Amino acid sequence: MAHIMVPLDLTYSASQPEAAEVVIIGGGVMGMSVAWHLAARGVRNIVVVEQATLGSGSSAKPLGGIRANFSDPGNVVLGKRSLDAYRRFSRDFGVDIELSRVGYLFLARTDEELDQLHSSAVTQAALGIRTHILTPAEAVELNPFLEASSLTGASFTPDDGHAAPAKVVEGYTRACLDLGVCILERTQVLDIQRSADTITEVITNRGGIRTNSVICAAGAWSAGIGDMVGVQLPVEPVRRMIGLTRQMSAPHPTVPFTLDLSTTMYFHNFRNGLLVGISHLEKSEFCREYSYEWLREFNAAASICAPALENPDLQAGWAGYYENTPDHNALIGEACDLPGFYYLTGFSGHGFLQAPAAGELLADIYQGRESFMDPRPFSVERFAEAGSCLREVNII
């Protein structure tokens, strides 16, 4: 995770083509996932447009978690299918993604939270996920940093864990280049032209690309892309900050990726140190300036459920974006009023862990195929329909 950019020894297309079958806007893990899924099925003349460098947006700064520990069935399915893909990734793409299957540990500190974890475990079990509901003492056995007296229980999914996002972007990128995908870095989309209900051209700082199909995988920048064609994508950028503790001469105990539902505090191993953070309350804006203001909330949470982590000895850290939607769940689908405009965005902090399956699902939608799941719950249209928003509990 320290290495966040795709290696520069990859050879990219030097010139922008005049036409494409599909233009994918965004060269992060989502854009590269759907590009690979389409190219692997024989779709040609795919162009990926990235305004900076590959993986430098939200994909550069995630926590690296991969899990199927959700409460909503759709999120469980996306998580499980992606977990399966990540287990095969090194074999399939020839890139070591530093997969660490230490499991996910969600902490409950109230009876209501524990009831929610029980309910989620039932949903997960029905979809083939191994989930264990733990007593406070059992949670401490898995993670000795925890204070048992602060907990009512926990849920543990042993097949979950974390991996290196940059390595995943690298793997997809290498495979895409082998399949002839045109990748344009430092190329900004300035406008998208349409004639009635048909997309006709994508305008970038390099010129125009004639196309009838666009996939918006622009993460935190997606709302602006939608505005270009009159499609409302309710995605807002929200800064999130994490810290990396000082590397120790001897490693910490290996612990699951641990999250406290009450406060959204989280931590997991990072080499001989720890990655720590909390979903600090932030306003919606484009700002990736790093600060330590989140530490006040982190320390307050740690003082209760993991006292040894209070006032962590930080050596490094970073700020990145959540790409939040109103219900903090993904947008996956095709615009109902503009055929040919597809979206794969708004994952609200769980994009990396759902990227392989989400890219596959959008590729199925693009090709008109029946997919492994019903994509309609992730349509942007849900926000216009009373009672249709997703109700996910296990998110931070």
UniProtKB/TrEMBL annotation:
InterPro entries: FAD-dep_OxRdtase (IPR006076), FAD/NAD-bd_sf (IPR036188). Its EC number is 1.-.-.-. Residues 22-364 form the FAD dependent oxidoreductase domain. Pfam families: DAO. One of its GO terms (molecular function) is oxidoreductase activity. Keywords: Oxidoreductase. The keyword Oxidoreductase applies. The keyword Oxidoreductase applies. This is NAD(P)/FAD-dependent oxidoreductase. It comes from Corynebacterium nasicanis.
